[in-house]
Amino acid sequence: MRWRSGGKPWLTGAACMLACALAPGLAGAQSTFEPGQDKVLRVCQDPNNLPLSNQALGGFENKIAALFAQQLGWKLEHTWFPQRMGFIRNTLRAKEEHAEHFKCDLVTGVPKGFDMAATTRPYYRSSYAMAYVKGKGLDRVRSLDDLLGLDPAQRRKLRIGAFAGSPVTEWLLQNNLMEQVSWYQSQTGDAEQYPGEIVEKDLASGKLDIAFAWGPIAGYFARNARGAPIVAIPLVSKPGMKFDFEIAMAVRHSDKDFRQRIDQLIAANEAKIHAILEQYGVPQLALQAPAAASAASAASAKTP
pLDDT by residue (tens digit) across 241-291? Predict the structure, then answer.
């Protein structure tokens, strides 16, 4: 097994990876200042994590935040901080110096059920994906089963890239592919690196034959690949192996009215949000109905 640095932690391990990245430093001072009291929407976003967000405002989270600010009639302000260790401590829980308000009031992308903050209703659901360059012998691979169905000699030669701790890890282990994997770390400490490098650089250049990544990342860089025709195939969850996740936004636990307002914006802009995600090549699955989601959570809780 080979280890490579692969960008900042976003959803490399879905709820687990992001929770580990955001959890430290949650204790923070309370404030009587209410979000939006001064007609400013303050969001916390990663400065270098396309297609989610970047400092040039080129990501879909940037676009959705701008849409919300426009509809609220508020000014939009950003706190930029890489989504890695200490993110919440330095953003959602950090007071602005010489001011009553926090540095930001809204995190624009966390897994549903993220318990280190209060989460909104989900605004999209996607899955992990596998990506490869067309025309290099893998064009008939449209699923994990197809990948296993390759000629054993061909399969043994595959150079695979995956994020350590992601849901794909268990599948690779079960199918004796671990020795062929170049592992990408979810936290490198290098602000210049970003998760999409696994597709945009290493897969496109031929260093990898297959890359496993969070669907929005794989879909975006496959669509925007230069010089290498890349296809991204969303993975289908199986019993005991979940690849798809619902994504919500997060606010402080105490900001109940603000969370309700964001919930209302998400509900009112469902079609517009879907269109924005489509523009970025995000593989989208139908959001689970509340009853179905509750049943799935209960079933998961019973699984040893």
Answer: 999 999 999 999 999 999 999 999 999 999 999 999 999 999 999 998 765
- Could you name the CATH architecture of 14-124+243-302? 3-Layer(aba) Sandwich (3.40)
Whether residue 86 is predicted with pLDDT greater than 90 in this model: the reply is no
pLDDT of residue 191: 78
Q: Do domains 14-124+243-302 and 127-234 have the same CATH topology?
A: yes
The 3-class SS string of the chain reads CEEEECCCCCCCCHHHHHHHHHCCCCCCCCCCCCCCCCCEEEEEECCEECCCEECCCCCHHHHHHHHHHHHHCCEEEEEECCCCCCHHHHCCCCECCCCCCECCCEEEEEECCCCCCEECCCCEEEEEEEEEECCCCCCCCCCHHHHHCCCHHHHHHCCEEEECCCCHHHHHHHCCCHHHEEEEECCCCCCCCCCCHHHHHHHCCCCCCEEEEEHHHHHHHHHCCCCCCEEEEECCCECCECCEEEEEEEECCCCHHHHHHHHHHHHHCHHHHHHHHHHCCCCCECCCCHHHHHHHHHHHHHCC
How does pLDDT run across 6-18, given as a tens digit for each residue? 333 334 444 444 4
* 127-234 topology per CATH: D-Maltodextrin-Binding Protein; domain 2 (3.40.190)
Residue 297 has a pLDDT of 46
* Domain locations in the chain as residue ranges: 14-124+243-302, 127-234
